[in-house]
Design a protein that fits this description.
The complex is a heterodimer of chains A (about 500) and B (about 300). Chain A has about 500 residues and is α+β, with helices and mostly antiparallel strands. Chain A contains 16 helices and 16 strands. By secondary structure, chain B is mostly helical.
């Protein structure tokens, strides 16, 4: 199957559904598998109901060309040959399809529920469970290592700290971890199902709370879809403000992460300072729009709040103060040998494993993978101003921490330049309702990595399906891999170095 | 005679009341290093009072061992505190060989703490117990090599004499040995009391904790007893280190009490500084540091008897 049979689409573009090529199942499979072998990444792979069975849509990202490749197929029957053995990065997508639509990816090596809900198609279930039985979250067949001296440590879903619920199961020999299995689903709210039939007044609020710390990222991805579906571009000044808000979000979260990493190894000065500085950067978002998490700022057509010269000056002052303090606090961490001894060589994910699993965001860049939607599929303000890509090769906790630091510096530089002068004009254009029977894909580089939203509209211009892929969806398996042959006591810093979203995964 | 009783009473009052203040001083020091105001100095007392007023949750899988852990822990720690001379004054109890009872009274307390942890059947607590036992048996040689040095220098097998007037004179004849012991015991103090770089008393991460993870299931008054016992233990080890590093026998029986309190708090500041400027060790490296401490104390002994 040649690549030409796939529709090439730019990030943030919409096309009539009829333009998206419908392939035979075998050709669709081949397109995905060969795409993975030709340096494409699987950005989305999901099912929606179809008159003939189940429609499967695939979106591949070609980072080198800066294009997305799309196709779909119809699956008749309750089984299809799994692509995972040949293309491991689709493993979770296939599990999700199996769980949601009750079809079996035959030959999937790790076919377990993802979020532990009943199938969306009554009468179809990948595990043959009765329809009226609600699956219990976390009850599945976990991988077990057998032996007299093996012990199993189960952590969560209730944790000792105030964090989201998730279940972690370690197979240990003493302090040595053979394998970690992560079982989520406790935060499943059924957001995607709620989005069908939209957009409504509530849709944007769902988007802003898909993963609370990525409000700007998800809202931007959604608004790009609505703009392309409506055929109206956002105002340049709106793009400019979105870009500033997005980098502030990145800045706040990366700073918080470095502080948390320092806290986990018991290095207090950086932990405390970064904790405060995260708040300072969040407060800059509040200066923009009144919400520390950027809620209510990004809306279809642009943004809701403009900045005047007084607030710009305020932001510049806060940025410079924050930049100085964060540099001091973080340099302290790099200069501390006992902290570096904990970070280096801990939780290493080899580059080939990261590529096979399709990791995204700082976790991928720390393994030397050049993956950043802002440079490969630029959108909004990033089409005009490029942010240099930050990568490191070692793939350990140190690399994931240091990539964050590089990105902090680059985000500060970016915001500093943007705060100098922005485009004039309005901040928001009127966004027409979505065109009927259209297909739109939008990628955004959230602070955790690639956010992918795919929208399909029906004949009346409402969402027939709305697929959200949070970066955490790609990366949870990376955390599991990073624990292989590590000390169980190093799990917390490995976990913090990924800092993935539970609710973004569980939706 | 009355003077002796007053000194003993002072000893008891200090052992019972001063330890939480040391924790408060450590917390304050760490807060200052982190650029925070930090909790009040008396916060540990408030915490203990709060815990004592609370109810308790007891797991159905536990037995009397779970209750015995904290009780035996506090009793043995207080017993050990009776053998350690404070501020150059003889301890309330002393006899030849009491240092062995001192070490193994604490060992008994640890045994029961670990047993109570295992009693819960939780995998975390089992892990914590395994770590605690491994690390404490590596810390023990350091403690005993130190005793060896002091016994040789003082010609006595009682802690009150070993840490008594002879320490000052030994500093002038064999200062290297005593410095080695003081340093080695300081490392033991950090390890035995689960301070950074061995353990982080403030962490909530169940997979990395050592001492704290063993007491995860204790709550209310029992947990208060554990925290109080931990504070006393820190104070007792502090008194050992100070007995070597800052002998107070020569400065007069009454002046030595306030000086002792001052150096105890100073030691708490030093611990706070160490905790502020260091990250935790990776767990597999903990034994190396403890073995180094033992070797240091052994070297001190070699220097003295060569």
């Amino acid at each position: 199957m040649s690549a030409t049979s796939l529709l090439k689409l730019a990030n943030g573009a919409a096309v009539p559904l009829s333009k998206v090529p419908r392939l035979e199942l075998a050709a669709f499979r081949e397109a995905i598998i060969s795409g993975c072998k030709r340096d494409r990444r699987v950005s989305a792979l999901f099912g929606t109901p179809h008159a003939d069975g189940l429609a499967l849509y695939g979106v591949l990202a070609d980072d080198a060309a800066g294009m997305l490749e799309c196709a779909w197929t119809v699956l008749v029957g309750d089984e299809f040959p799994s692509m995972t053995p040949e293309c491991p990065e689709v493993h979770l997508f296939e599990r999700e399809i199996a769980e949601q639509w009750g079809v079996v990816p035959a030959g999937h090596p790790w076919l377990k529920p993802v979020r532990f809900h009943s199938s969306y198609r009554p009468g179809h279930d990948a595990w043959g469970r009765a329809q009226d039985v609600t699956p219990l979250i976390g009850v599945t067949n976990f991988l077990r290592v057998e032996g007299e001296e093996i012990h199993e440590v189960a952590v969560g879903p209730v944790h000792a700290g105030v964090i989201e619920p998730g279940h972690f199961r370690f197979q240990c020999h003493g302090e040595h971890v053979f394998h970690l299995e992560i079982s989520l689903g406790y935060q499943h709210r059924g957001v995607e199902r709620k989005l069908v039939g939209g957009p409504t007044k509530r849709t944007i609020h769902f988007m802003e709370t898909l993963s609370g710390d990525t409000s700007i990222g998800h809202a931007t991805a959604y608004c790009q879809n609505l703009e392309s579906l409506g055929g109206e571009h956002a105002m340049p000044r709106g793009h400019w403000l979105r870009g500033i808000a997005q980098e502030l979000e990145r800045l706040a979260n990366h700073t918080g992460d470095l502080g948390a990493l320092a806290g986990d190894v018991g290095f207090l000065p950086t932990a405390s300072y970064c904790g405060r500085l995260r708040g300072d950067f969040l407060n800059m978002s509040a200066v923009l729009c009144g919400s520390r998490f950027g809620r209510g700022l990004v809306r279809p057509g642009g943004v809701t709040f403009d900045v005047d010269e007084v607030r710009l000056e305020d932001l510049r002052k806060r940025l410079e103060a924050g930049a100085k303090d964060v540099t001091n606090a973080v340099q302290l961490l790099w200069a501390m040998p006992s902290a570096m001894a904990r970070f280096e060589d801990t939780g290493r994910v080899p580059t080939d494993v990261a590529a096979e699993l399709g990791l995204v965001g700082p976790a991928a860049r720390a393994c030397g993978l050049r993956r950043d939607v802002r440079t490969s599929h630029p959108y909004g303000i990033y089409q005009l101003t490029h942010i240099p890509l930050a990568t490191l090769d070692s793939g350990d906790v140190y690399a994931r921490a240091y990539v964050r630091w590089l990105e902090i510096k680059r985000s500060i530089d970016f915001i500093r330049i943007q705060l100098g002068e922005g485009p004039r004009g309005g901040i928001r254009s009127e966004c027409p309702p979505p065109k009927p029977e259209h297909f739109a894909v939008s990628l955004v580089e959230g602070w955790r990595g690639e956010i992918c939203h795919v929208a399909l509209t029906d004949a009346s211009g409402q969402f027939a399906a709305y697929k959200v892929i949070d970066p955490s969806f790609h990366n949870w398996m990376g955390l599991a891999m990073s624990l292989r042959d590590q000390q169980i006591s190093d799990f917390p810093i490995c976990n913090k170095s990924f800092n993935l979203s539970y609710c973004g995964h569980d939706l | 005679m009355i003077v002796l009783y007053v000194h003993i009473a002072t000893h008891l009052v200090l052992v019972l009341l001063l330890p939480p203040l040391c924790l408060g001083v450590i917390a304050k020091t760490k807060a200052l290093f982190a650029g925070r105001v930090g909790p009040p100095l008396l916060q540990p007392y408030y915490d203990l009072a709060r815990l004592m007023k609370k109810g308790m949750v007891l797991s159905r899988t536990t037995t009397w061992v779970f209750l015995a852990g904290p009780i035996v822990g506090i009793v043995t720690t207080l017993l050990a505190a009776l053998f350690v001379p404070l501020g150059g004054h003889a301890a309330p109890l002393s006899f030849a060989g009491d240092f062995v009872l001192f070490a193994y009274a604490l060992g008994l307390g640890r045994f029961f703490t670990v047993a109570a942890a295992l009693d819960t059947g939780s995998p975390f607590e089992g892990m914590g117990g395994a770590r605690e036992v491994t690390f404490s048996c590596l810390a023990e040689p350091a403690l005993f090599f130190g005793f060896l040095v002091l016994a040789h220098a003082s010609g006595s097998y009682s802690l009150s004499d070993m840490l008594g007037a002879s320490v000052s004179s030994t500093w002038s004849t064999a200062s290297a040995s005593l410095a080695a012991v003081a340093l080695s015991w300081f490392v033991v103090l950090l390890a035995e009391n689960s301070r950074i770089p061995f353990d982080d008393p403030n962490t909530h991460l169940e997979l990395t904790m050592i001492h704290e993870v063993m007491v995860l299931d204790h709550s209310g008054p029992l947990f208060g007893v554990i925290l109080y016992g931990a504070a006393v233990k820190l104070f007792v080890f502090g008194a050992l280190v100070l007995g070597v590093a800052a002998p107070l026998a020569g400065i007069g029986p009454w002046a030595s009490w306030p000086v002792f309190v001052a150096v105890s708090l100073l030691l708490a500041v030093v611990i706070g500084v160490v905790e502020s400027v260091m990250a935790r060790l990776r767990l597999p490296q903990v034994p190396s540091l403890l073995v180094a401490a033992s070797l240091l104390a052994a070297f001190g002994a070699v220097l003295l008897v060569r």
